[in-house]
């Protein structure tokens, strides 16, 4: 009897230890809790930026239920399924799933704004942080829980000691605008109801409140500082951008401080095509165009067709034989940083993007929507030169069931189909999804906007990457 009782107690103890190991995630209820963790508290970490950006897209109701205004299951912003194989998070119930994002080297992570990307380089610390949500298949759009975590240094597993649950109360605090009123020690920033600041400004104030430590290049505006790597100088104020012109080609825009132009004898900007939407090597194998720079700022129309993965690269030489100082601008997102638009009433979405400078369309079809071709047998996507055109004044069109499936671009829950038109991509071009051959049932529409997103990041020599 005693042996059986001892075995029972041992089994019970082991069971309790097991439960503790899979569910003891500390909850963060307010900004002070978050500050005390020191999570992602220095450059080039981006976890705090991820969390702030995410909180702006969460609605919290009076019962503390959280709802998103986008769809992680569709892969928006680089979200993908998280298996929780290491059991750093609580075990899932039936029809629940974890989804994670934060890997800046995924193609759809280019949909995130510049303040999330701005510290990205090929140093390991710049891509370690992640955010995870738990969702229910029975209630799409509702978030059951939110977590932040980070990879262990140099490994693909996660560190349970820096894994925290974010409560709705903290989400609500992060949604409030920040007013830049410092205390005597310049440590805290007081919350305010003013909405005058832009999202990026408010994020920077949030980072200041948490004591986020920036390197010299992010702390100093347009001033030269020595970086930790003594062979390089870092600068703030360098701006590079690729956007669309009216002919479906890339327009290169740059702004370089005068002191850099004067310091370097040779200055070039390359338009590089990233063959893979992951990491960019310092030496790009596919340079589409090289531009010698003589002016500190300008805009140049080029003949390089717009494609996802185009990226400006600045090369600076002090002499003909010197090694180049290398800077990269943001990678061009083929969908212009606009996520798919839901087709009203159906588990399907529409997205406008560009391929070879032409307006193209993607259909995201949920795999459970198995009879979509039958239901959409008379549905079509119209391509319009502007939003002012009437529904029957399309430039070209294609029936939905004639779209081609993209084999290597599907997600766990969605199949993706595409069609490339002959219409040149340009600001104002619009897609519309019409249910039938009549012109009065527009279920989705999306437009190509002229979006500016300057930022610059430095590429160092350490080629480390986390999957």
Automatic annotation (TrEMBL):
Source superkingdom: Eukaryota
Extent of the signal sequence: 1-24
Positions of transmembrane segments: 442-460
Query: Does the UniProt entry include the keyword Transmembrane helix?
Result: yes
Q: Which UniProt keywords apply?
A: Membrane, Signal, Transmembrane, Transmembrane helix
Name of protein: Uncharacterized protein
Organism of this sequence: Sinocyclocheilus anshuiensis
């Amino acid at each position: 009897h005693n042996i059986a009782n001892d075995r029972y107690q041992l089994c019970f103890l082991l069971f309790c230890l097991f439960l503790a190991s899979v569910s003891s995630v500390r909850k963060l209820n307010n900004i002070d809790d978050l500050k005390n963790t020191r999570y992602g508290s220095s450059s080039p970490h981006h976890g705090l930026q991820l969390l702030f950006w995410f909180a702006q897209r969460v609605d919290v109701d009076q019962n503390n239920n959280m709802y998103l205004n986008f769809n992680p299951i569709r892969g928006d912003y680089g979200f993908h399924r998280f298996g929780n194989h290491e059991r750093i998070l609580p075990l899932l119930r039936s029809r629940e799933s974890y989804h994670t994002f934060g890997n800046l080297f995924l193609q759809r992570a280019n949909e995130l704004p510049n303040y999330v990307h701005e510290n990205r380089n090929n140093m390991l610390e710049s891509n370690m942080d992640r955010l995870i949500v738990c969702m229910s298949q029975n209630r799409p759009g509702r978030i059951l829980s939110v977590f932040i975590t980070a990879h262990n240094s140099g490994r693909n597993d996660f560190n349970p000691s820096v894994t925290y649950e974010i409560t709705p109360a903290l989400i609500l605090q992060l949604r409030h605008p920040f007013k830049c009123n410092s205390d005597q020690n310049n440590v805290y920033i007081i919350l305010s109801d003013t909405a005058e600041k832009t999202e990026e400004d408010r994020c920077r104030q949030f980072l200041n409140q948490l004591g986020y430590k920036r390197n010299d290049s992010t702390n100093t505006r347009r001033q030269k500082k020595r970086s930790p790597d003594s062979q390089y100088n870092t600068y703030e104020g360098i701006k590079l951008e690729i956007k669309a012109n009216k002919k479906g080609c890339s327009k290169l825009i740059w702004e370089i401080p005068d002191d850099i132009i004067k310091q370097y004898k040779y200055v070039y900007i390359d338009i590089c095509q990233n063959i893979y939407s992951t990491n960019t090597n310092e030496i790009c194998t596919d340079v589409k165009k090289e531009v010698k720079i003589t002016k500190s700022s300008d805009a140049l129309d080029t003949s390089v067709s717009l494609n996802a993965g185009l990226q400006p690269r600045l090369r600076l030489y002090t002499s003909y034989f010197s090694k180049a100082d290398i800077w990269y601008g943001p990678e061009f997102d083929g969908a212009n940083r606009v996520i798919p638009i839901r087709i009203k009433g159906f588990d399907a979405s529409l997205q406008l993007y560009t391929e070879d400078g032409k307006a193209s369309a993607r259909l995201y079809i949920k795999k459970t929507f198995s009879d979509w071709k039958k239901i959409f047998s008379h549905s079509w996507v119209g391509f319009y030169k502007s939003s002012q055109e009437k529904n029957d004044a399309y430039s070209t069109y294609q029936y939905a069931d004639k779209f081609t499936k993209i084999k290597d671009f599907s997600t766990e829950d969605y199949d993706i189909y595409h069609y490339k038109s002959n219409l040149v991509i340009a600001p104002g071009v619009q897609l519309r999804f019409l249910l039938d051959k009549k012109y009065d049932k527009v279920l989705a529409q999306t437009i190509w906007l002229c979006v500016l997103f300057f930022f610059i990041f430095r590429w160092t020599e350490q080629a480390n990457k986390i999957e």
